[in-house]
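[step 3/7] fold_predict: job queued, chain A
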Amino acid sequence: MLLMMQFTLLSTVFLLPIALAGSVVLAIVYFENCSSMLIPLFYDADKLNMGLGGPASLIAWDPQRCPSLVFIGRSGTGKSTAAQIALGRVKRYAKGPGARATICDFKSEYTYLKGCPRHFDHNRCMDGLTSFAAENERRICEGVTDADPFHVLLFSEWGMFCSISDKRTRDEAISTVAGLIMSVRAQRMSVWLDLQRPDSQFMGTARDSLAPIALGNLSPEGKRMAFPDYVDMLEPVGANEGYFSDGVNPPRKIIIPTVTKWDILRKDVKALVE
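[step 4/7] structure written:
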């Protein structure tokens, strides 16, 4: 039977469909701030199907272990929603001074961020990438201090940007992103790419340093590129489901919650880019 489990995560409510025996269950779970380097992202599908809820069902992201992420999925798989949920978790759980995000919004999907200083839409995406790279370089040269906040770069529709851009812009962007992926770990910074398929030509030499969050059912080629050592273990997934690997452990099946209070989530995301 398909149930709806409701989770309250620091005032943001998510509805989570889950197959369990019995009648509808309402579970309210409150999560306290976790370790500065552990940020809860999504739900472990296998644990939820075993009836485990609350913190036991969460998959936490460790930016020290895998500082950079790649969100993969065709249109309609929940890729953009997953990225926004992850940004909201960063806002709520990253320790230290207020976390920041720079969002390069190539398809202008984040219209509610228009006017925010670290939101760069369409033609200004290279400006956002250059700005984030300059901050990374500053931290490398001057050293990271307690005053430096955790800072995420989200480049939305990275693959489309690379496909459409002229060769000079594309090569410069790929080189910059590859350099960032290889250097942000020690700078309290993180690179997130969002693309429809895991094409290695758009990720340069740093592909293996990206932790994949793959939503929907990937093509055989996509499975080989995202999870080369685990292709045979990937089972078909339903709506708002996928796989996540931290680059060390085998991929885990995840469920992306359905957001019911978008106003709260958008407020959190907006706070990161203001």
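[step 5/7] annotate
Residues 108 and 142 are 34 Å apart (CA to CA).
Confidence is low (pLDDT under 50) at residues 1-36.
exit 0
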